[in-house]
Amino acid sequence: MSQSTKGSGTSEARSRLLSTATRIFYAEGIHSVGVDRIIAEAQVTRATLYRHFKGKEDLVLAYLDLADREMRAHAEAAQAGEESAADKIRAVCRTIAAGIRSPGFRGCAFLNAAAEYPDRDHPVHRAVLAHREWFLETVTGLLARTGNIPAEPAGRHLVMLRDGAMASGCLSDAKLVSETFLEGVEGILRVRSA
């Protein structure tokens, strides 16, 4: 069980724990899931869990780190091959829209975690804020290359559009929410290019 996965330096048991926790935390929430369930579904012992994670909070932080790394990779991949900054923004936002339309979509993992950990000093909340700061900096940097007016307000606007789309996407018609989100992004880009 503790054998390392080829070339990754991560044990199979740790991967199963993280994969199981990710699936359950995202689908059902963090506080509603106990470590006993994660241990049972990952088919590991309690000792194995604590060998890889100090406790549930450490597992939650690993879940958010994984989600952050995946979102960064999706954003980078979406921008590859796109020439203009506006097209890079569109590509990133199409990736977000595709996620909203995906089966099992339950909103933004980070917004969901922030709702469960409202204390800004809590490590989970700080991880959420760090992810959001990265996303804001990424889109603001791209938007700065699309026009001559300050990009910060447009970056904050895009983040708010994304937040609204992520919340609405699991409450109503995901296709309509995605289309509305992408129309809003086009509106921001039109203002930037005017």
TrEMBL record:
* DNA-binding region(s), chain positions: 34-53
Query: Which residue intervals define the domain HTH tetR-type in the entry?
Result: 11-71
Transcription recorded as keyword: yes
Q: Does the keyword Transcription apply?
A: yes
The UniProt transmembrane annotation reads none
Leader sequence segment: none
Q: Which UniProt keywords apply?
A: DNA-binding, Transcription, Transcription regulation
Its name, as the record gives it, is TetR/AcrR family transcriptional regulator
Write down the species: Streptomyces kunmingensis
